[in-house]
Amino acid sequence: MAITPDNEGLRCAPHPSCPLCGAGCDRVVEGVRDRVYSAPGTWSIRECVPCGVAWLDPRPYPEDVPKLYAGYHTHAPAPPREPASFRDRLRRGYLHFALGYRGGSAVLGAVAACLPALKDVIAGSALWLPARPGGRLLDVGCGSGTLLRAMRDLGWSVQGLEPDAEAARVAREAHGLDVRVGTLDGPEFRDAPFDAITAHHVIEHVADPIAFLREAAS
Questions:
Q1: For the chain, N or C: smaller number of CB within 10 Å?
Q2: pLDDT per residue as tens digits for the range 113-127
Q3: Nearest 5°: phi and psi at 12?
Q4: Are 203 and 215 in contact (CB under 8 A)?
Q5: Shared domain check, 120 and 35
Q6: Residue 141 belongs to domain spanning
Q7: Do 92 and 105 contact (CB within 8 A), yes or no?
Q8: Is 8 left (phi over 0), alpha (psi -120 to 50) or beta?
């Protein structure tokens, strides 16, 4: 892998071909900076005309990727839960009505079912997973554990995998979650069977999305 000159402390490697379909591309947006979390570096983004995927070219060297997340939001614990509100009861009701989770009002669930925008948001908060009491769930790229905590409350037996050691520490210490540092292709859960594997807001951070999905499916 050819390494390009330093990009504000990050080594980078060229990646001119689409990571999804392999096509080359000349459509480039240059001079891009992270204006949300102030990650270092100035970047160029290529877009694949045939399939629409966009990616960084050059890409940060894998060993330097953690530097991009030094100030990421997952380094802070999730805010404490608010007292049960009507909105929360509506959420629990729809999860009971549509996905079979316990503890909700079927009447409120039926009300939420009449509101398309709301029911999609509620179902999305559980990633559209039907209830499976005691089912094993692995969240890859779990950050500080916000989703894991919510799924644990819904009856899942949860574990997390997170490449950012600081975010994993927050998940363990602030929320009492079993979160290990690593990536999906590592040894941490190699032989462990799961009923569901989630990767919420993760695929866009993965260098090889096809290999990532194949590993999850295996």
A1: C
A2: 999 989 999 999 999
A3: -130, 155
A4: no
A5: no
A6: 86-217
A7: yes
A8: left
